[in-house]
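INSTRUCTION: Work out how this chain folds

Fields: amino acid sequence; protein backbone structure tokens

Chain under study, with its fold:
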Amino acid sequence: MNHEVLEEEAVLRPATRSALAELTSVPGVQAPPRRAALRADKTVRVAIVHDWLVTYAGAEKVLEQIVACFPDADLFSLVDFLDDRSFLRGKRVTTSFIQKLPLARTKYRTYLPLMPLAIEQLDVSAYDVVISSSHAVAKGILTGPDQVHISYVHSPIRYAWDLQHQYLRQSKLTNGPKSAMARLILHYIRNWDIRTSNSVDGFVANSEFIARRIKKVYQRDAQVIFPPVDVEAFSLCTDKEDFYLTASRMVPYKKIDLIVEAFARMPERKLVVIGDGPDMQKIRAKAGPNVEIMGYQPFKVLKDRMSRAKAFVFAAEEDFGISVVEAQACGTPVIAYGKGGALETVRDVSESRPTGLFFDEQNAESIIAALERFDEHVKRFSPADCRHNAEQFSAAHFRERFFSHVRAAVPALRTATLPPYVPYKAEAAAGAPRILAVDQSGVLGGAELSLLEIVKALRSRIEVVLFDDGPFRTALAKAGASVEVLEAGALRHVRKQGGSLPKGQALKGLVSLVRATAKRARKADVIYANTQRAMVIGAFAGKLARRPVVWHLRDIVSPEHFGGKQLAIIKWCARFGLAHVIANSAASARAFTELTQFDEKRVDVVFNGISAAPFDALRTVPQATLRQRLNLPQDAFLVGSFSRLARWKGQHVLLEAMVLNPQMHAVLVGAPLFGEDQYEIELHAFVAAHNLGERVHFLGFQHDIAACMCAVDAVVHTSITPEPFGRVIVEGMLAQRPVVAARAGGVLEIVDDYENGVLCTPGDAHGLADTLAELRSNDELRNRLVRNGYQTALSRFGTTTYVDGVARILKGVAGR
């Protein structure tokens, strides 16, 4: 979208004194006039500087609205590793030299000592107005005397100032040489931070709390403009039910455990908890029967519970606290810890038209007392008052206030008007195809996790159709994808291992799915089938819609994995309706071409891409902490198996190795997914028969695989039939754990024996036991496998290479 906002209305006029000078001048001191920096026929050029662009969180939501205020501005940042660029309205970002440093994508924070230098190398000298969005170093951008620099500060660098000691404790840097080095670096950062504050013409703070922090650190006053909250996404609800809600990422400073503990001591009150994160196990352990822990939920569910709740409970100390405002936007009053930003967003019972109340201490007793007080005042809280209070924090209000502030500070913008807000709709790049992705499953298996990476990167031009609901649909929605679930009916009971061909109701369901898929495919340029059943539906739908079909083959199509009738169907569909095949390994490609005699020129191998970010985020978390969360023994040598419970995955081989190796424990992460419950029963029976109960830990399905892997000492892959790829092997490498894998299939394309992993004969429990014993006793071997494995995972199986490969093939097929 190209807004003609600053063309004629924002021409610079001669000015003797800027509004910023009026706002920031010292009484009794005459400020020199600001020299006109532009010719009268030139428009004002605006640069926006942000610390780093790696995710879409609170600071980025502010940036999104600043960009909406100045749609023609140019963007600058230390690094830019965004997958979804829609909130930047598709703008290109100029980055610093850190962008090209090793491992910058995942370890950009480790380059903190270089960030002051890096931000100073970004050249904004050609701009008249510089707006920095800063919670670290963005405000240190170099500007000249004729440039106006306005800095929206989310906070001065917390870990360099008042939170330094907390940061050092959490990073285990309280003593020793590393601690001394860290303290020296933070001292340098503080000096640099104060010096560069002098080059800012005007500060804007996101709350009075941060304004006080700015005053304390920089000795400067700041205008308070609250950050934007999407209150329009929430609607007023006056019918409240008898339950309380808390919703947050489950991390320590959010104090969800305290809220759960308080309600566990009040069984007459019901609490609903929405969210996920590292503290999930700790919080579940404290929950009583009156506490419903729902885990992560899509926005629709969060909005529903937030609208119907009697009150929203909030125990964190936040600079602002967006969820507190969102609750009030639903007409729901808030019970909050009385410190930080909540004091500015909630009206207490001491005021007229209150919207909530506060408690003074972050402990269960204080929360209980606040809930009792809430009952005493409950009739004073009006849903309409809560909604009215929330509306002052809307995105529209933020844009109006921020644009007015900048306009008042820049004489050349005095006649400019705020551009009308138009929601941004990302357009596909020229020549980029529209894609319909099809998957049969609602569970989060390896194929689904791999598709999720594709969707995150291509979401502006990809739609997803699933044949079953479940966590996968939730994950896609969380990633901002357009996703629809079609009813599969009796087809969901057809298994790849064999069985009768679809008849009766199953055949009716097949026809229905083909028609529904074809209808959606007509809006796309190519059909991208992610699983075997999706490929069958896609082949027929492609013919009806006259669209090419690409199958991402993630299986070895052999009698070990498929029944005879299923192999015949694959062979027929390959000839009937497939334009191209993407195989996840050479082993998968070879088995497919041998079965179907498919043209090898239309088969490409693209290794799965797996993000290192979830694993790197846990580098500073002690293993003991992870084990405590998962209720695992602290001192044992833990061997982890990570896959669904299925006979061909070979978990029984690991249990047999445990019998032979009494010094070890086994950790089984996964659950039966496709009618394999009998196998799980057999595993438990084996454990009982061999008295392994204290050494075998069944964790079931887990959302946070990275935390589970980092909690164990070694990762094993025990498939007894050839694996198409072996995602768990790469994940183990990213977790920096030694990996032992079965010598077959796609595994041979990942593991170099005794270099980045160890290979064992499939099904050989004695060989596995011997290898694990060697790993346990050989520190040098473990260290070599970890070091080389991590480099292998990063260099060969990164998400960028994976996504680029798939996107290139889809574009080529669509363009034929």
Q: What stands out?
A: The CA atoms of residues 347 and 354 lie 5 Å apart. Residues 1-41 have pLDDT under 50 and may be disordered. Residues 177-197 form the longest helix (21 residues). The chain has four domains: 19-26+33-157+200-227+397-413, 231-391, 435-609+801-814, 613-797.
